[in-house]
Amino acid sequence: xxxxATADDIRKAFRKLAKKHHPDVNPGDKxxxxxxxxxxxxxxxxxxxxxxxxxDAGEIxxxxxxxxxxxxxxxxxGQGGGPRGAEFENVDLGDILGEMFGGGGRxxxxxxxxxRGADVRAxxxxxxxxxxKGARRRLAFTDGRTLDVTIPAGAADGQVLRxxxxxxPGRAGPGDALIEIVIRPHPRFRREGDxxxxxxxxxxxxxxxxxxxxxxxxxGPVTLNVPKGSNSGSVLRLRKRGLADGQGRxxxxxxxxxxxxxxxxxxxxxxxAEAWRRDRPYSPKGR
Length: 287
Prior knowledge:
It is built from seven helices and eleven strands. By secondary structure, the chain is α+β, with helices and mostly antiparallel strands.
């Protein structure tokens, strides 16, 4: 079909038919002369990337005319309605396009080359957990139509899912639905490159002495072993608890420790800090 033809396919088909119908090869043959003109016009349509894009989307017909809504064949009142419709005698550009591509275009009842329906595009917002584990969501279109979308495990932000045959109808078949995945921001987890990162607050005693703390993950809470002498910014790696790739392989989750003081002032802690500052002064690195 013309819709899927490459630029090289189009050039080869044009050369073949142009040679076949060239006036020099068929002197005095009026029909061949008209076909040669039509072949040149067809090449003008398909050889122009912008025109071919519009033709593929059903925005123009085989004569290059804009299609009216609900009329895939172009002029709803029949052939000859536009300036190019009367350009050739007894030659239909839809026939020429069909001849160029093996008759795969199928003519509609109103003449012209039947086109595939246009693709439709939509955005689907999902949660981070749905992107990691996969999910099934129902998407509603403005025309009242609904579509069930299977989100694969490891879906990436900005990834486009192509659902064959779920687009707008057309004489040569419906177009596709292109669904762009958008992962909503998460209140705890964030992406840094290919890694999934979270911050885990820990108390001063756990930072100084070490300890066990509970931490959330997309798969549920886990227990972290905090090493003795941990500082804010220390990172613990939780293997296979992060994002999944397109093959479903899980990456790692990085837990950044944040040493956190009590929310209310603690006189005992202040007394320890005063003695520490007096007897064991030190300056943190980086100051």
